[in-house]
């Protein structure tokens, strides 16, 4: 393990001299793009791959290798996310409410440039679209131009925490729009990114979209969970392997076998406007059972877009969302009387979230299951 790490460090140290030695040889540069990916020099993959393609435009192998590398540098969920109509419509409506002619907008984590183009379409005077992934940023530049907004949207490649107020942004933004949230709200680093943006890049009296968000929970039953439960395999009992299953489990919000059986509650709530002195790291909620047996706790997200509207991907038969719900199974199902209260606790470190049940009554008093 350590040998592998040492070898990567050696390869990283000698990497740029190798690039220099490769000169203008497309095949060699394509190979180095592959090496960059293997040794963790992620920022070098796309520039080297595109240079290789430009230098060897008729080389089928270079085309195939670099296409694979570029594709691997873009998380697959981008495609489902861009087709997520309820998400897109909620952001479009909030952007239209916030933007007036001349508004200066910063889009953090611009991706394809979708929210930036929504802002420009709503009349924004100028938009800075900040995207840290160089392959995605380049694509956004082309998409923005193809849609006729290149005169008002400037794509800046880099992380928002490194944006220079004057040279990159030309002054504070009136509106900062962002969609850098994950299934558990936090895993894309939304808290630190938006705390920096709100305190450093937003004009006094400016607006953050979303202005806040919450980790939502409810008691639930997920019938299909048992489908992946390990039992008899080839005549052997593999039940013991279930103890190694990953928690939480990802489940589509529209899964017909996932049903909610308590009041929903905000387990952790966050203010993205920078007003909160300190984000909470731990939260608790009391869930009131509707009397139906439950097999776990389900978690989804809420985005408080502005003072008027919130977006939620709350599971249900008609729910549509590219964000999955997260299911935390109980050791055994609980058959609770209607009105029984269960206390649920959540803790996060800014990226990861952990949710568990903290029984209000001693275990022995809980209904047997
Ligand atoms: C969930 S996608 C959203 C894309 C686009 N805003 C949309 O709504 O369709 C988030 C994007 O933000 C980028 N990103 C995340 N944090 C960032 C940051 N602090 N600065 C710049 N880009 C960031 C990621 O590379 C990714 O492309």
TrEMBL record:
GO annotations of cellular component type: ribosome
Gene Ontology BP terms: methylation
Coiled coil: none
Keyword Methyltransferase in annotation: yes
Tagged with keyword Heme: no
Entry keywords, A to Z: Methyltransferase, Ribonucleoprotein, Ribosomal protein, Transferase
Membrane-traversing stretches: none
GO MF terms held by the record: methyltransferase activity
InterPro entries: Arg_MeTrfase, SAM-dependent_MTases_sf
Gene3D superfamilies: Hnrnp arginine n-methyltransferase1, Vaccinia Virus protein VP39
Pfam families named among the record's database cross-references: PrmA
Designated name of the protein: 50S ribosomal protein L11 methyltransferase
Organism in which the protein naturally occurs: Sphingomonas echinoides
């Amino acid at each position: 393990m350590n040998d592998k790490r040492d070898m990567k460090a050696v390869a990283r140290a000698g990497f740029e001299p190798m690039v220099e030695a490769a000169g203008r040889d497309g095949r060699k540069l394509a190979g180095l793009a592959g090496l960059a990916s293997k040794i963790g020099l992620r920022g070098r993959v796309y520039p080297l791959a595109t240079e290789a393609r430009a230098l060897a435009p008729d080389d089928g192998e270079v085309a195939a290798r670099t296409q694979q590398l570029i594709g691997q540098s873009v998380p697959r969920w981008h495609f489902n996310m861009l087709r997520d109509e309820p998400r897109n419509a909620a952001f479009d409506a909030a952007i239209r409410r916030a933007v007036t002619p001349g508004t200066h907008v910063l889009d953090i984590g611009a991706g394809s440039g979708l929210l930036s183009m929504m802002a420009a379409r709503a009349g924004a005077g100028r938009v800075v679209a900040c995207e840290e992934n160089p392959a995605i940023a380049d694509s956004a530049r082309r998409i923005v131009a193809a849609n006729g907004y290149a005169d008002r949207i400037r794509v800046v490649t880099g992380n928002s925490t490194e944006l220079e107020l004057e040279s990159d942004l030309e002054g504070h933004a009136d509106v900062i729009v962002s969609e850098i949230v994950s299934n558990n709200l936090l895993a894309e680093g939304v808290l630190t990114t938006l705390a920096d943006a709100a305190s450093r890049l937003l004009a006094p009296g400016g607006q953050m979209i979303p202005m806040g968000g919450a980790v939502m929970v409810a008691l639930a039953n997920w019938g299909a969970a048992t489908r992946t439960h390990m039992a008899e395999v080839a005549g052997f009992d593999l039940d013991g392997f279930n103890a190694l299953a990953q928690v939480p489990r990802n489940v589509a919000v529209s899964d017909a076998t996932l049903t909610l059986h308590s009041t929903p509650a905000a387990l952790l709530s966050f203010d993205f406007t920078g007003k909160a002195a300190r984000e909470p790291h731990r939260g608790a909620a009391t869930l009131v059972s509707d009397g139906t047996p439950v097999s776990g706790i389900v978690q989804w997200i809420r985005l408080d877009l502005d003072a008027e509207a919130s977006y939620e991907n709350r599971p249900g038969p008609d729910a549509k969302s590219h964000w999955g719900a997260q299911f935390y199974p109980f050791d055994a199902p609980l058959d609770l009387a209607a009105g029984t209260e269960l206390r649920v606790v959540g803790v996060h470190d800014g990226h990861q979230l952990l949710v568990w049940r903290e029984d209000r009554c001693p275990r022995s008093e809980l209904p047997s299951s």
